[in-house]
Amino acid sequence: MRLSECVEVLEAEVLVPAADMDADIRVACGADLMSDAMAFACSTNEMMLTGLVNLQVVRTAEMMDVKVLVFVRGKRPDAAMVALAAEKGICVLRTAFPMFTACGLLFAGGVQGKGA
Questions:
Q1: Coil/strand/helix, residue 105
Q2: What is the pLDDT of residues 14-46, one digit of tens each?
Q3: Distance, CA of 112 to chain centre
Q4: Is 63 part of a structural domain of the chain?
Q5: Where are the alpha helices (DSSP H) in 15-98?
Q6: Cβ atoms within 10 Å of 113's Cβ, excluding its own
Q7: Residue 9 lies in a domain
Q8: Cβ of 38: how many Cβ atoms within 10 Å?
Q9: What burial class does residue 51 get, using C-beta atoms within 10 Å of its C-beta: 0-12 exposed, 13-18 middle, 19+ buried?
Q10: Which of 37, 78, 94, 107 is most exposed by smallest CB count within 10 Å?
């Protein structure tokens, strides 16, 4: 699924655009605990969905080479998080959908999770 299609499906607000909004997103994970994201998520995640809003999320995404962060449940990252993500080249989206719904919408569009 193209990133631009993910934005549409999630009815997302783009806070930090990607260099290529038509990039293919094939693998994603969803977690509110960054330790779970690191321990159980596939190492090839291109997108991470979370409701956790702190700088550690951006740092974790950077370590995991995640290209897109999606904040669910209408959570809004602060200016420092947005600036850090932009500096690290991480696209940031925000959606009002809860995690389960957002993951389901992406899955229905062809985005896979670990083990797929």
A1: helix
A2: 999 999 999 999 999 888 767 666 666 555 658
A3: 13
A4: yes
A5: 34-40, 55-63, 79-88
A6: 15
A7: yes
A8: 14
A9: middle
A10: 78
- What is the extent of the structural domain holding 75? 3-108
Q: In this structure, what DSSP letter does residue 67 have? A: S
CATH of the domain at 104: 3.40.1390.20
Helix (H) / strand (E) element for 28: namely strand 28-30
Structural domain count of the chain: 1
Rounded Cα distance between 81 and 59, Å, is 10
Share of the chain above pLDDT 70, in %: 86
Distance of alpha carbon 19 from alpha carbon 116, whole angstroms: 27
**CA–CA separation, 51 and 97 (whole Å):** 10
